[in-house]
Design a protein that fits this description.
Radius of gyration: 25 Å
Oligomer: single chain
Order of helices and strands: HHHH
Structural class: mainly alpha
Mean pLDDT: 86
Number of helices: 4
Helix content: 55-70%
Length: 153
């Protein structure tokens, strides 16, 4: 399975925009625009129109960037999740039930997280006593009550 570049125009545009907007030169251009706008204030008598120009420009850019950045972050998160799933899948002794945790309800996820917090606490206690923390304790699946909803504690 070999990754390929996206052929969808929006994906390519969102990736290009995210890379471009994160560069120092882009910040310098934006800063320069603000300086020019500030310097021209006295020329326009600090009028309402002068203020409206920067307010409108920044609002439009911010509005559009929200969608582009969210698209990029969603794609990056999904890619990282798939990579983590693959690491779990190929790791001997790993709990394969953890592959799709992001699909669980919050209560079920909290229950599993609490188990891992308990494991970490026990491992730290073992280390303080000079023992090892490399055992592989079992993780219980979330407990469900009738109706398919997780039991609350």
């Amino acid at each position: 399975m070999r990754p390929t570049k996206s052929h969808h125009w929006f994906t390519r545009f969102a990736q290009w925009t995210a890379r471009t907007m994160g560069r120092p030169s882009t910040f310098a251009v934006a800063f320069f625009i603000i300086v020019i706008w500030g310097v021209t204030g006295p020329l326009f008598g600090f009028s309402d129109t002068w203020q409206l120009v920067i307010n409108t420009g920044t609002t439009i850019v911010t509005f559009l960037m929200v969608f582009l950045i969210q698209n990029t972050q969603n794609r990056d998160s999904e890619a990282i999740q798939v990579k983590l799933d693959e690491l779990i899948r190929v790791t001997s002794g790993a709990h394969v039930a953890l592959l799709d945790l992001e699909e669980l309800e919050a209560d079920e996820l909290d229950e599993i997280r609490e188990q891992y917090e308990d494991l970490a606490k026990r491992a730290r206690e073992a280390l303080r006593k000079g023992k090892t923390d490399t055992d592989i304790p079992r993780v219980r699946p979330p407990q469900k009550k009738r109706g398919g909803k997780p039991k609350s504690k």
